What does this fold into?
Amino acid sequence: MFESVPSVEAARPAGLQRVSDALRALGHEHEPVMLNDAARTAQQAADALGVALGQIAKSIIFRRKSDDVAVLVVTSGDLRVDEKKVQALVCTEGGKLGRADAEFVKSKTGFSIGGVSPLAHATSPVTLIDQALFRFDVIWAAAGHPHGVFRLSPAQLQAMTGAPVHDVTAPVSQV
It folds into this structure.
């Protein structure tokens, strides 16, 4: 499937090590792996792993404007997040959701864009999981580095994060 993946026993980047430690503490059976090429996009990750684009659990960070809290949405790589659906779920009293720039993402999560893991964040975000991930038995998520990924199931993702599952994606016709 992905024969070109080298061992992760060599020196690991800090973000990858943080995710690895969190997975180990949670008793997760799959260690993160480092891909030979960057997987900054869902398509790059899917190509490197030889899996369907939808099996990539992409982590999208938004900024809740009322309190400057990070909002993490984990969805399938083949879908686009519907910002209005997310806003309705995480903002109260007419609050707004905004885009998060690279500096905000790094400061709130501890990860750079392209390597944002769904867990082991510097500051706990408000997290939502898209129900579309449950189409797959196996998914892959970023492991704290643009080359790092780890294998899990959607149910494991939900158990690890404690996040609720919602429909947070745009209809396919709008993608």
User: Anything to note?
Assistant: Strands lie at 33-34, 56-64, 69-76, 97-99, 126-130, 139-142, 148-152, 165-166. The chain is about 25% helix and 20% strand. Residues 70 and 125 are 5 Å apart (CA to CA). The mean pLDDT is 91.
